[in-house]
Write a structure and sequence with these properties.
42% of the residues lie in helices and 21% in strands. With 80 residues, the chain is an alpha+beta fold. It has a domain of 38 residues: YefM-like domain (YefM-like fold, 3-Layer(aba) Sandwich), CATH 3.40.1620.10. Strands 1-2-3 form a 3-stranded mixed sheet. A hairpin with a 2-residue loop joins β2 and β3.
Amino acid sequence: MGMSEVSIRELRNHGGEVVDRVASGEHVTVTRRGKRVAELRPVRSAALPIAELMRRRAHLPLVNPAELRSDLDAVIDASL
């Protein structure tokens, strides 16, 4: 997502909408009298513990690399 600007007044009057935009990935610069004074950006989600990642991986299907390559070759134009 890109970065946009909002004035302090706009932030005050439409704060919920601005925060929704930030929550969806947009970076927003807050201005006061045309000067940049702050940036709002999404909070990075916390990394998952290794035990949780291993638990999730255990439920993934096995992948045959040769079959995967064949499937990709069938749908991707190699001349690109």
